[in-house]
Amino acid sequence: MRLFCVSGVRPPPSRTFLRKRNFPMEPSRNWVAEPVRIALLGCGTVGEGVVRLIRRNAAMFERKIGAPLVLAGVADRSLKPDPSLGLDAKLITRDSAALVMRDDIDIVVELFGGHEPARTLILKALAAGKDVVTANKALLAEYGDEIFRAAGKVQRAVGFEASVGGGVPIMRTLREALAGDRHRAVYGIVNGTCNSILTMMTEHGSEFAQALAQAQRDGLAEADPTLDIEGHDAAHKLCLLVTLAFGVRLKPAQVYTEGISQITLADINYARELGFTIKLLAIAKDDGGIEARVHPTMIPSHHLLTGVSGAFNAIYVHSEALGPSMYYGQGAGQMPTATAVMADILEIARHRLAGARGGAHPLGYPATMVDRARVKPMDDVLCEYYLRFMARDRPGVLGSIASILGRNGISIASVIQQGRGVETTVPVIMRTHEARERNLKRALAAIRRLRVVQGAPAFIRIEERL
Ligand code: HSE
After folding, report:
1. What pTM, to 2 d.p., does this model score?
2. Residues lining ligand 1, judged by CB closer than 6 Å?
3. Tens digits of per-residue pLDDT, 135-184?
4. In sequence order, what are the residues at sequence separation of 6 or more whose Cβ sits closer than 8 angstroms to the Cβ of residue 385?
5. Whose CA is nearest to atom 4 of ligand 1?
6. Which domains does the chain have, with CATH numbers?
7. Which of 46, 216, 233, 281 to mutate to test the pocket of ligand 1 (most atoms within 8 A of CB)?
8. Percent of the chain at pLDDT above 70?
């Protein structure tokens, strides 16, 4: 850190000068640190939010870190800045690679999203001695190992608070506030799009397609919603949660992933009758091996996570000493996500100004200590299940379904059959006791072959004791 005199009458003293003469190393009212200079890669929704926060809170940030925070450049291929941003046109460039390499840049904030050029630019920035902040969960889930190792090697920081839970400070909480505990399970509502759609289905009785169309009209779902509704975005976030919670790494391909597009209003209503609500959960458990799965889940309607509705996110953590705790807030959106980016920028700026390098292990462990997870195969996972069959309403039908389940070691907890359908089919709903996924799949394949059962049976996993 270099300091300069506010009055400007003296040349700035060097750090060595200050140390030799026992000057305080902290900035004081007379000696102000040189600015911390930021390059922003991508000025879309969240980038704009970051620009707004830097402008709106400049004086407060300066007081907080003891130095001015300066936006020194913005790279964006198609940026036509909103005049209300007050962005100086001279700051804007299309050449992100050149911006990242500029000598005067201290922190590179990557908000391009996607794998490339984000990965290459982050690696270049780290190699050039810059610290990095990113909100890019897809990139970190796939290439986090490479990026965190590269950062560790050159002792630079990578902040990624905004990558999971939007404005909910879950990364920092797991890494710091909960560092003294051992975690057993994490249950996350980490995709606002899915949570909004399921909330609309539950509260307004909409079918999936209707709720999705409404979410798109409300700007809650993308025009191409696949990444969200098929659970991939949640799987990316779960990879990061697993690393922070359990200190091991895994890739999205190792996360069992199922989205919400097959959920029907009928399932939502039957779940309610059984005392459950359906949520898309990202679930990770550590009982020697790691369970990592994203799927629609029935949770008790009185559970805290049930009250998380719309675009809100929440992460429910089970820790050995602390017990359960929950972190809740706005999971997306311009300003909530921008606050998470800003928190990383400020933390890194403080570190830089204190002369420290590398942050305090962004993953909560040195990257070299984070081993590959031993992931439990989905077939070995134990769950309770909700099952829905469309079956002929004839004597013995329930008996044949039950006997197939029994032969596969699956015990039935309750059954609902509504209506009569001698000529047509009626829904038969069952709730099972805990069973192994492998056995359930085998039983459902056999039930599907019964002539009295029409179509593929539907099933939803139940987490009653979360
Ligand atoms: N698409 C995400 C969601 C927000 O729907 O939650 C960004 O992580």
Report:
1. 0.92
2. 191-193, 228, 233, 331-332
3. 999 999 999 999 999 999 999 999 999 999 999 999 999 999 999 999 99
4. 410, 431, 432, 435, 440, 459, 460, 461, 462
5. 332
6. 35-166+336-369 (3.40.50.720), 170-330 (3.30.360.10), 380-462 (3.30.70.260)
7. 233
8. 91
